[in-house]
Amino acid sequence: MKYIEKFQYITHDIPHLSHIEQAQQACEAGAKWIQYRCLSKTDEELLQDINAIAEICDDWGSTLIVTDHVHLNGKADIQGFHIEDMDADFIALRKLVGNDITLGGSANTIENLIRLASEGADYAGYGPYAVSETKANNYALIDIQAYNHTVKELQNKAIELPVLAVGGIKIYDVEALMQTGIYGIAVSGAVNFADDFIEAYQDFYSLVKESAVN
């Protein structure tokens, strides 16, 4: 069983902090999971970022996950990939990266989650919960009742895929989300745009851990 952190932090293209600065601050705040999400750079630029962030993660004992860009596997110290394409073939992806690499996927329906579990994904981001400041999408929002229903459905089917709520989540959403039995929470904007990045991260982290029911 691979290590999957309950509170996952995602970097983004934002004007006031580079991806490297975001990763540094998150690790200083205690982050054990950094998802590098950059879809706007060349491979050379991506690798410059990834190598720098990998060193930071290594210094702080954090797991480094890269959004998409599976073709960079083996070219940097990357522990895993998060694939946003909900139609991606995870059986083929697993063959490509091997068993040691962590593979996560995005989902918006129970059917998405069941398929990810059946194809060997290690975890799933399930959302969006709310409108996100950092990622535009047209998928239907998933409310608390739907998270409750999803958790029960997966339990009934004996599916043990770790599922994390994601998408526009604020600090005041955490307790209710975690009480659904969801595995964890992933955030970006609520930390990146906070007045105090480190304090915001630590507040989220503490609340996720305190509110977990499993």
Automatic annotation (TrEMBL):
InterPro entries in UniProt: Aldolase_TIM, ThiamineP_synth_sf, ThiamineP_synth_TenI
Pathway: Cofactor biosynthesis; thiamine diphosphate biosynthesis
GO CC field: cytoplasm
Boundaries of every Thiamine phosphate synthase/TenI domain copy: 17-191
GO molecular function: thiamine-phosphate diphosphorylase activity
UniProt keyword RNA-binding present: no
Domain of life: Bacteria
Keyword field: Thiamine biosynthesis
TM helices/strands, residue ranges: none
One Pfam family from the record: TMP-TENI
Gene3D superfamilies: Aldolase class I
GO biological process per UniProt: thiamine biosynthetic process
SUPFAM superfamilies in the cross-refs: Thiamin phosphate synthase
Protein name (database record): Thiamine phosphate synthase
Naturally occurring in which organism (per UniProt): Pedobacter roseus
Upper lineage: Bacteria, Pseudomonadati, Bacteroidota, Sphingobacteriia, Sphingobacteriales
